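**Sequence, structure tokens**
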Amino acid sequence: MNVRKIVGLLAIALLIFFVVTQPGSAADSVQNIGNILTNAANSLVTFFTELV
């Protein structure tokens, strides 16, 4: 196995462990990531709208 595959599997295992042990915090983290992506998308839309 190569290192990249091992690191990927460890990251998935850590994510599953986090969701199982602290589901509330995991849900908050996912919600925060969603909010960040939404804000970034809205900023890009505003930028391109202002260009026109």
About this structure: DSSP finds two helices and no strands in the chain. The mean pLDDT is 94. Residues 10 and 26 are 17 Å apart (CA to CA). The first helix runs from residue 3 to 21.
